[in-house]
Write a structure and sequence with these properties.
With 1324 residues, this protein is α+β, with helices and mostly antiparallel strands. Helix content is 46%, strand content 15%.
Length: 1324
């Protein structure tokens, strides 16, 4: 058993509150002896924790040494004999050494194995001489220890963390010609693998151990051990490697040699005379999922490494024994670290390219386990699969699923020695059976599977925190000479349970591999002799319990024919009845009689289904069926058109597959009162039984009254038969809709037949109350997602119930009045609801257009719609609108057609021509619009335009919140909100959207821009706001629109009364969450100035992001304005009032001027006559927005207009500038600004143009000196578009003369400019 102190030592923080480990010797010794009951009780609640999963564990193949390590510490547990309280001796694992293994700073234990070394004495019988513990560290070091913790040697062969350590030892070849494998130790790193020759390692370890013994005794005698021979391979062309297996040396056949040569070398490849010997290595990880490497022998020379001795000459004792004391522990550690400060030289790796692999980009391998025969390997991955690989062919031959975090092991079981050893064939090699052991910790089960395609031969329930320990090797140092006559005492697979501390071994008998082999290959022969042999065996069994077990096993065998089961069961039953009553086992007799009854029922049903006599349907049933289906024909055809298409399925899962007798017996049982009860297990089994009983009757291929009579005589309750019938009817909806009239008639007859059974409808049932029988049908239809089948079943049940009630009323009252009952009213409501559900489900089944978002089809039923509350229907349709990617304008157009159609229906007289045009337009309407209109007509209240637009708005904003990068979703959500006519609903939805989705992100965007002082980059937007910079710009624009809608709705609320929400009468029983419209009406009113304040902020942020204007948003507001931001919109806050500080107004003005400049630069094409877009930086409404913001920010709008006029002229957009100029109030200032701009244009034409003409030079000479000096002082570089046609400049000068008064100081300068421009224009 594991000792409690092991947990305390490896997990000190989990045990001690102050996270310090007490090193007092008495505490340790009391824990070893198990006498400290107080400590055990205090940590009893920790025993269930999976502490072992955090440790590195390895077990010696001889099961005599267990190593448990965690981080820097380790504990060695050795096998000891112990006498328990009863005097019985048992083997236990007790702690023999504990200590710290790491010597480098920060390194931890990453892998460990225990290698038993064989004794070199001739008298040895196969027990190991001693066991070496090999430990790999994250620093790259590999260190070798004795079982008492003495460090023998340390090697740094690569500077990456050690991932896995694996060993291969000598195996006696079972067949002649099998390549004898060399011993080796393989070390896996992240991109390299080192293989150490086993013989070299064996000699070095022996020498180091002898040196350690001498050093402990004398302290100064040093013997240099022989160097290690190793090979180092750099594994290439694989993304990540997490585990490996060294398969060993293999030799290809001549054909494979020629095939590989032609693939690798091409047509002219040369082939060696003999196939080369290669070492095969298999790795798992990713890219590819499994990689196969082949290293040709002799391609890389072994490297010789001088052993780093860990035994110092002054080390008096390397054992951490009681003599040295636990308190001297840290001193020894420091002494060990001293010789290893200087790292040895690390040799480079020889590159080794991957030969081939199993590519699977999404699958990542986790571990690989090599079989003892070196021909197979099991691989686990992160998909919870276990894959069986054929290493010779390099293919996967089998896969198990449902084994997440699986651990693997192999069992190779030799054939038992028996009389075969004395036979003439005894010289042949002994046969071996191979089994794969899989431990699934998630399920707490240990399974054993026969190889390669065999079944599961064993399964054991174990704990969920165990560790499967499989070594995969035996003793090192064994060869073909020394192993003669040895009996190797090794265990192959062990399971360690950390909760109980028990170490279990797994043993499988050899014959389990043969049992299934004979059954598979001799099945035909077994069937021939089964009945006679089985009968005699069952009758010969004496013990009743064993006889019962044999009969149950026979009845559960799927390969046994029904006739054989009947004959054997009847023979046993007859035998029991002939015995004396006192000698018969009652349970066995009951089992025989009940199973015989069920087998007879199974046979009778089978015979009735194969009979050819089919009953005729009554004429009145045909008439009613035709009348019912005539109204629904169009709806059913549309529904069948959109039902899911056929998908891939397995033959055994098909509903048409016959039901085996064993499955029939497993689902039925006989009760003590001779009745048969159906056991409901899974839905699939229930449907299979229903198919077996009733499908042929529904198709009209079986005499249904005889079937019902047979089932009634068997004693099955009518309620269970009704449930089976309805299950089949609803489950096979697609087949039923192919011939609806015939199937409906057969369902009616079956339903009537079941209703007439005894116990179906109670005799004392009052027609004015609810019948449990018909309520069962209604409940099934209400819960069904198969709308068409449920509606047809409800119509049939309604007619049958009405006939039953009428007949009861006639027999009771004998009147001509029609019977009215609560039952029929329930059916009327149910049928109406199912008709609505059929139309709605047809709409929801319409596939989305190509390229749409798509998603799973919503399955609805009466139950789900009622549980969805008053908004459940609108919610389903809004999800469909999103899935269909229908724009808000398109949805509005469809709903307007609905309104127009309703208005036209109210007009009594219409022109023949108008009617013809309407019919033609209706024919041109696409089917999606028709289906949506049909649904809206069925739900006039639940799908009213405001109701539907509100739900669509909410659906789109929810989808946007899931993926904020899709800014279109938020834009469409706002567009849907605009189309809501009721301001009350608009205001409520706006308030909910703001508080739920918008406010938090807008706040994050504001503080981000305040932090960076400009439009943030994409990376910062994604980090703080959760979306890119482009999506954030769109988001801010939607915020402005949303707040504008909220302000308009708040203004209109007082003028319009709140709408009264209603729901269809048939759906008045809805219970569930309130609809979006109802929630909207419950919202409190908002504070208009606060909403306007936030709208102002959002507009400023949107402008800054659109035109990349540097600004800190809060710098545009005073302290009151800053404090009012992101408060609840329904509260009254202290808002800014009065005149603002001139400095603040100046900052605001500068910002708006930059925005206007950015807009003018965005529409920089003067030659384009196309209208500006409605959104984006070129939108036409930006100037008016800036003027509106200016009025709110107390900025003079005339300054903004003058700036805009100048910017437009500077850009060359003269026509737009003239339009804005009409609104400028201060013409004098504008005239002065335009005069400078005109001078810059003329200066460019006369002085700075590349193609100056002689006339221009002469004109410049004729100009007045004052004007000439003024033009030379102008800087045309301030113009963004200096090259403007002269007619435009002339027109600008004319406008300038108009707006400047004659007494203006620069009026004469303007006249000279006009003269100069006219001269230039005339000469051109």
């Amino acid at each position: 058993f594991l000792k409690f102190i092991l947990f305390i030592y490896l997990f000190p923080a989990s045990y001690s509150e102050d996270n310090e480990l007490s090193w007092d010797t008495s505490d340790w010794e009391s824990a070893w002896e198990g006498g400290d009951n107080k400590e055990e009780e205090s940590t009893s609640d920790k025993k269930g924790e999976p502490w072992l999963q955090d440790c590195v564990v390895s077990l010696s193949p001889c099961a005599d040494l267990l190593v448990v390590a965690r981080e820097q510490k380790a504990a060695f547990l050795s096998a000891k004999w112990r006498t328990d309280d009863s005097g019985r001796e048992e083997m236990t694992l007790g702690v023999s050494w504990t200590g710290t293994l790491s010597t480098e700073e920060g390194e931890c234990v990453s892998s460990t194995i225990c290698i038993p070394l064989a004794s070199q004495k001739r008298s040895s019988t196969g027990r190991p001489d001693w066991t070496c513990v090999v430990v790999g560290f994250t620093s790259g070091y590999v260190r070798f220890y004795t079982e008492s913790g003495v460090l023998l040697l340390a090697q740094l062969l690569h500077e990456d963390p050690v991932l896995r350590l694996k060993c291969r030892t000598y195996e006696i070849p079972r067949h002649p010609g099998v390549t004898e494998q060399h011993e080796e130790l393989s070390i896996l790193y992240s991109a390299a693998m080192v293989t150490i020759d086993g013989f070299s390692l064996f000699q070095s370890l022996r020498a180091c151990r002898n040196q350690a013994a001498r050093a402990a005794a004398a302290g100064n005698d040093v013997i240099q051990p022989p160097p290690l021979a190793y090979k180092k391979w750099g594994l290439q062309e694989m993304d990540t490697i997490v585990d490996h297996s060294s398969v060993g040396i293999m030799t290809l056949c001549v054909f494979d040699q020629m095939k590989n040569a032609s693939i690798l070398g091409g047509f002219n490849a040369s082939v060696k005379g003999s196939p080369p010997a290669m070492s095969q290595y298999v790795t798992v990880g990713s890219g590819p999922y499994t990689g196969f490497y082949y290293a040709i022998e002799g391609s890389s020379q072994p490297l010789l490494s001088h052993v780093a001795m860990a035994v110092a000459s002054k080390l008096t004792s390397a054992l951490f024994s009681a003599a040295s004391g636990w308190l001297g522990w840290n001193k020894n550690k420091n002494e060990e670290e001293a010789p290893q400060k200087q790292k040895p030289k690390v040799e480079p790796a020889t590159p080794l390219s991957i030969r081939f692999g199993l590519p699977d980009s999404r699958r990542h391998g986790e571990s690989i386990c090599l079989s003892p025969c070196n021909m197979l390997a099991g691989v686990t991955d992160d998909f919870g699969r276990v894959t069986l690989l054929d290493l010779a062919r390099g293919i996967a031959i089998r896969m198990w699923k449902g084994y997440r975090d699986a651990q693997l092991g192999w069992l190779q079981v030799p054939e038992e020695r028996s009389e075969r050893d004395l036979s003439p064939s005894a010289s042949l090699p002994r046969r071996h059976a191979l089994f794969l052991v899989i431990y699934a910790p998630r399920r707490g089960i240990l399974e054993v599977w026969a190889m390669q395609q065999g079944p599961r031969v064993g399964a054991f329930t174990v704990g969920k925190h165990c560790r499967l320990l499989y070594a995969g090797y035996r003793l090192m140092g064994v060869n073909s000479v020394t192993s003669q006559g040895w009996q190797l005492h090794t265990q192959q697979v062990c399971l360690l349970d950390p909760i109980t501390g028990v170490l279990r071994t797994v043993n499988i008998p050899f014959h389990l591999a043969l049992r299934f082999y004979y059954i598979i290959n001799d099945s035909v022969f077994l069937l021939d002799i089964l009945e006679s042999e089985a009968r005699s065996i069952v009758l010969d069994i004496k013990h009743p319990a064993v006889k019962k077990q044999a009969l149950e096993s026979l009845l559960s065998n799927k390969n046994t024919p029904v006739s054989c089961l009947v004959n054997i069961t009847r023979a046993l039953d007859d035998t029991l009845k002939r015995q004396e009553p006192g000698e018969v086992d009652a349970e066995l007799l009951q089992l025989c009689s009940s199973q015989l009854k069920l087998l007879q029922l199974y046979t009778d049903i089978q015979q009735l289904h194969s009979a050819a006599d089919v009953e005729e349907t009554a004429e009145n049933v045909r008439t009613h069926t035709h009348r019912d289906l005539k109204k629904l024909r169009a709806s059913l055809e549309r529904y069948a058109q959109f039902t899911p298409r056929p998908s891939v399925s397995f033959a055994q899962d098909s509903p048409d597959s016959p039901l085996p007798a064993q499955a029939f017996l497993s689902q039925l049982e006989c009760t003590e009162d001779e009745e048969v009860k159906v056991i409901r297990r899974s839905e699939t089994e229930w449907n299979q039984l229903g198919n077996f009983l009733f499908w042929s009757c529904l198709c009209g291929k079986s005499p249904l009254h005889k079937v019902c009579y047979t089932l009634q005589q068997a004693g099955i309750s009518p309620q269970q038969l009704l449930s089976l019938l309805l299950s089949v009817w609803l489950h096979r909806e697609k087949e039923l809709l192919q011939k609806p009239e015939e199937n409906v008639r057969n369902l009616h007859r079956l339903l009537v037949a079941l209703s007439d059974m005894k116990g179906a409808v109670e005799e004392s049932w009052d027609t004015q109350s609810i019948s449990p029988w018909w309520q069962q049908v209604r409940t099934t239809c209400v819960q069904s997602h198969n709308a068409a089948a449920a509606l047809l079943a409800a119509l049939v049940a309604h007619r049958a119930a009405k006939a039953s009630i009428t007949s009861r009323a006639d027999s009771k009252f004998q009147s001509e009045w029609e019977a009215v009952s609560l039952e029929l009213e329930q059916w009327v409501v149910c049928v109406r609801q199912l008709e609505d559900v059929l139309v709605l489900q047809t709409l929801l089944l319409v596939p989305p257009p190509p390229g749409a978002t798509g998603g799973a089809t919503v399955q609805c039923s009466i139950k789900t719609l009622l549980e969805g509350g008053t908004g459940g229907i609108a919610d389903s349709v809004s999800k469909w609108v999103f899935r269909q990617d229908i724009s808000p304008e398109r949805l509005k157009e469809i709903l307007q057609k609905r309104g127009n159609k309703e208005a036209d229906d109210n007009v009594e007289q219409r022109d023949e021509e108008e009617r013809h045009e309407q019919e033609k337009s209706q024919e041109d309407t696409d089917r999606t619009a028709e289906l949506l209109l049909a649904v809206c007509q069925r739900f006039p209240h639940s799908l009213s335009p405001d109701f539907l637009f509100a739900h669509c708005c909410w659906e789109y904003v929810v989808q946007w919140n899931k993926d904020p990068e899709e800014g279109r979703y938020l834009c469409w959500s706002v567009e849907h909100l605009k189309m809501v006519s009721s301001p009350h609903i608009q205001q409520g939805v706006c308030t909910m959207m703001w508080s739920t989705f918008i406010a938090k992100r807008l706040s994050a965007a504001t503080f981000l821009m305040e932090k960076v002082g400009k439009a943030p980059k994409d990376r910062l937007c994604r980090r703080d706001v959760g979306m890119g910079d482009k999506a954030m710009t769109s988001f801010l624009g939607c915020c402005v629109q949303l707040l504008n809608i909220l302000m308009e709705a708040d203004s209109a609320v007082e003028e319009v009364s709140a709408p009264e929400l209603s729901i269809e009468e048939a759906w008045s029983g809805a219970e569930g969450p309130a609809s979006i419209a109802e929630l909207a009406l419950e919202q409190r009113g908002v504070h208009y100035p606060l909403v306007q304040h936030h709208c102002l902020l959002a507009s400023l942020l949107h402008a800054a992001m659109t035109f990349s204007v540097k600004v800190k948003p809060f710098s545009l507001f005073d302290s009151k304005g800053k404090n009012a931001f992101f408060r609840d919109l329904t509260t009254i806050q202290l808002m800014p009032s009065g005149d603002m500080d001139p400095g603040l107004v100046s900052v605001r003005q500068e910002f708006l001027l930059r925005v206007l400049t950015g807009w003018v630069q965005a529409i920089d094409d003067p030659t384009s006559s196309a209208p500006l877009p409605s959104s984006g930086p070129k939108a036409e409404w930006w100037p008016s927005l800036c003027l509106e913001l200016g009025s709110l920010l107390q900025v003079n709008p005339d300054i903004l207009r003058r700036h805009l006029v100048c910017e437009l002229y500077s850009q060359g957009l003269d026509l737009r500038a003239e339009e804005v100029m009409l609104e400028v109030e201060d013409k004098d200032v504008l005239g002065s600004q335009l005069l400078v701009l005109t001078g810059q244009r003329l200066s460019y034409s006369l002085l700075h143009s590349q193609n100056q003409t002689q006339a221009a030079m002469e004109l410049l000479a004729r100009l007045p000196p004052t004007l000439c000096t003024w033009l030379k002082a102008m800087d045309p570089r301030e113009l963004r578009c200096p090259l403007i046609p002269l007619p435009q400049t002339s027109r600008l000068v004319g406008r300038l003369i108009e707006i400047l008064p004659e007494n203006h100081a620069q009026y004469s300068l303007a006249l000279h400019l006009l003269e100069a421009v006219e001269v230039l224009t005339t000469e051109d």
